[in-house]
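Pasting as-is:
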Amino acid sequence: MPCPRCRFEADEADCYCRHCGKPLRPYMGFWYDHGGVLLLTLIVGPFSLIPLWLSRKLSVSAKLAWTAGIGVVSAYLAWSLYRSVLLFKEAFSYTFPAGF
């Protein structure tokens, strides 16, 4: 089986090309590992669940744990944003009591 990038001949059991490092199987890249999921979560938030569940590197229990963690953090951030909007609204009403 040749590598799609460099055409170097690879064994059937290889997950990565020994010459260029390209993943030979789908969903085996860096984004589908624990570090990649963490990085994607920091960048795009709950949208990192898509490559998480497409990953073939992670077990189902790891996927469930990551999903629960990402859900809890996302819910906390949404609640914090809601509370900040309420505090801003209250501060605005004290600053301009007659309205704007």
